[in-house]
Amino acid sequence: MKFFAGPLLALVTLLPAPPPAPHGPAPLPYTADGSFPLPKNYREWIFLSSGIDMVYGPKASETTGHSAFDNVFVNPDAYASFLRTGAWPDKTVLVLEIRAADTKPSINHGGHSQGGINGIEIHLKDAARFPGKWAFFDVKPSGLGTLIPQPATCYTCHTEHAAVDTTFVQFYPTLLPVARSKATLSPAYLKEFGPDPISPPPPTKSPNPLSPP
Ligand code: HEC
Predict the structure, then answer these.
(1) How far is the centre of ligand 1, averaged over its atoms, from the C-alpha of 70 (Å)?
(2) Rounded to two decimals, what is the model's pTM?
(3) Average pLDDT over residues 108-135
């Protein structure tokens, strides 16, 4: 059977190389005028955090006098990539959903629960399209996000104070430890707050009842 090896090898080397495997995330679905449609299923994405009445600048509760929740979601592929690398891949889409904080619906007599949507904003990474790689969109009731052009306070505050690549990872508890361990915290954040502004919880003496056995 030895005599087959030569011709077989020649045949294999003559075969055209397979086309390169498609790689990288799919392009983002902008409309012709450059708007960005709110992804219909963003509520099925990865939930990063919910802040209530956070005060860091002009926002719903300060401008309208109403209490509000900020819910942040990210597309699952970008989340998985962040867990591996501590950094956001190109085509990351983050959605900030602002909901009214209701006080007394149903049987509730204290605290707050989430009510109707007051506003939705998008922060996305598309390096080929935007000079600063990232862009903000304000979502209108139609569901279309309008680009907020530079300069705007959105860009300044996120660049100067956010923990990872202009995103506020210091407020996303499942991601901050990843950014720390992968050393991806931004120089601006480290300068402002140091490497460990939020201490890890103290070690528990008894086993954590919430951990699996
Ligand atoms: C003074 C600082 C400041 C300004 C100005 C600001 N933000 Fe933010 N933004 C934050 C903080 C803090 C968070 C994270 C916590 C939260 O709100 O839940 C955040 C989170 C976000 C997120 C979630 C994703 C991320 O990047 O972490 C979006 C989307 C967002 N902001 C959009 C906007 C838009 C649009 C504007 C301008 C109209 C804006 N922001 C202006 C501080 C700011």
Answers:
(1) 9
(2) 0.84
(3) 96
Q: How far is CA 89 from CA 11, 55, 94, 132, in A?
A: 40, 29, 12, 14
Tokens representing residue 137 in the block = 């969109």
Question: Whose alpha carbon is nearest atom 11 of ligand 1?
Answer: 168
Architecture of domain 27-149: 3-Layer(bba) Sandwich (3.50)
Binning pLDDT at 50, 70 and 90, where does residue 11 land? Answer: very low
Q: Indicate the SS3 state at residue 176.
A: helix
Half-sphere exposure of 185 (CA within 13 A, CB side): 21
Tokens 């190389």 map to which residue? Answer: 17
Distance CA 30, CA 41 (A): 16
Determine whether the shortest distance from the Cβ of 74 to ligand 1 is under 6 A: no
CA distance 139 to 137: 6
Nearest to residue 122, comparing CAs of 141, 86, 100, 146? 146
Instruction: Report pLDDT for 55.
Output: 85
Q: Quick one: tokens of 84?
A: 């591996």
Contacts of residue 79, Cβ cutoff 8 Å, sequence gap at least 6: 45, 46
Domain ranges of the chain: 27-149
Ligand 1 neighbour 123 (Cβ under 6 A): yes
Strand-pairing partners, residue 94, are 74, 123
